[in-house]
Amino acid sequence: SLQVSNEFIKVSDKGFIIIIEGDAMISSSNPSESYYPGEIAIIDPDKDFTSGDVVLANIKSSGIKLRQYIK
User: Fold this and answer.
1) pTM above 0.85?
2) With contact defined as beta carbons under 8 Å apart, do 24 and 18 qualify?
3) pLDDT per residue over 30-66, tens digit each?
4) Would residue 14 be called left, alpha or beta, if left means φ above 0 and alpha means ψ between -120 and 50 degrees?
5) d(CA 11, CA 4)
6) Which DSSP category does 23 fall into?
7) How far is CA 7 from CA 4, 11, 16, 20, 60, in A?
8) Which of 5, 14, 20, 65 is nearest to 43 (CA)?
9) What is the largest distance, in Å, between two alpha-carbon atoms of the chain?
């Protein structure tokens, strides 16, 4: 397990990390806003999100995915 000091990253007690798999979040038009296989994403389920944020989504047809939230 990986432990991250909350001195560097503010995450609720329910926070966790995931390791990115696959290439669905790689953007050829904007590589700096891409998520690559092997990278770590910190997930905080208590954090509010707005349109444009990247979220962990449970998509009925394909399971849990990292996606951009568009309202």
Assistant:
1) no
2) no
3) 788 888 888 888 899 999 999 989 999 988 888 888 8
4) alpha
5) 10
6) S
7) 8, 10, 16, 24, 36
8) 14
9) 38
